[in-house]
Design a protein that fits this description.
The two termini are about 25 Å apart. Helix 4 links the parallel strand 3 and strand 4. Helix content is about 45%, strand content about 15%. By secondary structure, the protein is of the alpha+beta class. A seven-stranded mixed β-sheet has the order 2-3-4-8-5-6-7, with helices on both faces. It has a two-stranded antiparallel sheet with strand order 1-9. The protein is globular, with a radius of gyration of 20 Å. The chain has two domains: about 1-70 and about 300-350, Malate/L-lactate/L-sulpholactate dehydrogenase, four-helix barrel (Hypothetical Oxidoreductase Yiak, Chain: A, domain 1, Orthogonal Bundle); about 75-185 and about 225-300, Ribosomal Protein S8, Chain: A, domain 1 (2-Layer Sandwich).
Length: about 350
């Protein structure tokens, strides 16, 4: 059985500065670099390591190699009465998705509903990052994206669709914050466990390329992944692909390239007063949250918010040593000055 790895405590202020400077050195503008750094750090703060420091090396190396366009012309290429379509020009997906969120919420402030699509993009991190931002602006929001084929429908022997994350939230302290992809665990969790030498839970139902059950994350990455919730989860994965892929003109379903490029995103923003004055939205959500918690269950978003609050009090995040070393090497390759800032982020041993 794999032994737990030592962790490195990183101060959040210095860590964010190091990430910003590393992404600038890799070709991103200062605003884009700040957005990426903020999103990656927020994932760690919220206890979602699959979308935090684990991703840094791949992004920096991809920007420096040309896999991602470091100087893209991200622009609106179509504008309807209550919608926009954005071409990401092969950018890393954070800036295009953020732009879509800003466009959708602005349009919703005028018409009650705002819709934004993105095509020719790449992965954008946690979908929760964008719906939470829209909720803070006062809107109900739904965000989804599509990915390379990872899963198949029940009984499938070939992967046809991505695990296609979908998130939603709403304004107010009691609003849900839901974010899920439609395999038993995210692709990032398989990558994290592979790097850390950790097995998968056999109950998750992963198989290898020959269709045999496996707990090896490397083998599971080569197999057809099962949809979470069976046919129901598969249907939601198809819905996300329809909205983010087929509808926007991005690659869709089995046509998404193996390098996960030319994917799409979809943002829906709704004014809470869309159907007239709805002052009861907050109390309704508060009552629902109280009922869920009283039942012994957990309201969506409570865990991540509590984890973030605790980490912000401590002003540190804990990163497993192998992930830190992989990140450190990529930061050093991008910018020795950023690597020095990262070294400064390492908190003294307690």
């Amino acid at each position: 059985m794999a032994q737990p790895h030592e962790t490195v405590a990183l101060g959040v202020v210095a860590l964010e500065a190091a990430l910003h400077d590393a992404f600038v050195a890799a070709g991103q503008g200062s605003d884009e670099a700040a957005l990426i750094a903020s999103a990656l750090l927020d994932a760690e703060l919220c206890g979602v390591p699959t979308h935090g420091m684990l991703r840094v090396a791949g992004y920096l190396n991809g920007l420096r190699s040309g896999r991602y366009n470091a100087q893209p012309d991200v622009r609106v290429i179509h504008r309807g009465e209550a919608s926009v379509l954005i071409d990401a020009d092969n950018a890393l997906g954070y800036r295009p998705a953020w732009m879509a969120m800003e466009e959708a919420t602005t349009i919703a402030s005028w018409f009650g509903v705002g819709v934004a699509g993105v095509r020719n993009s790449n992965e954008f991190g946690r979908a929760a990052f964008y719906v939470e931002a829209a909720a803070k602006r006062g809107f109900v929001a739904v965000v989804c994206a599509n990915t390379l084929p990872l899963l198949g429908g029940p009984g499938a022997t070939v992967a046809t669709h991505g695990n296609n994350p979908l998130a939603f939230s709403a304004p107010g302290e009691s609003a849900p914050l839901f974010d899920a992809s439609w395999t038993p665990r995210s692709g990032g969790e398989l990558a994290r466990r592979r790097l850390l030498g950790l097995p998968l839970d056999p109950e998750w139902g992963y198989t290898d390329s020959a269709g045999n059950p496996t707990t090896d994350p490397a083998a599971a990455q080569q197999g057809v992944m099962p949809p979470a919730g069976g046919a129901k989860g598969f249907g939601i994965a198809i819905l996300a692909d329809l909205l983010a892929g087929a509808l926007t003109g991005a690659a869709s379903g089995p046509a998404v390239p193996r390098d996960n490029s030319n994917v799409g995103a979809f943002v829906l923003a709704l004014d809470p007063n869309l159907f007239g004055e709805r002052a009861g939205l907050g109390p309704a959500l508060s009552a629902a949250r109280s009922a869920v918690n009283a039942s012994g269950a957990r309201w969506p978003g409570d865990r991540s918010r509590e984890t973030r609050d605790g980490n912000l009090v401590r002003r540190t995040v804990e990163v497993p040593q192998p992930i830190f070393e992989t990140m450190r090497a990529a930061v050093e390759a991008a910018s020795p000055a950023a690597a020095a800032l990262l070294a400064d982020a390492v908190a003294p041993s307690r």
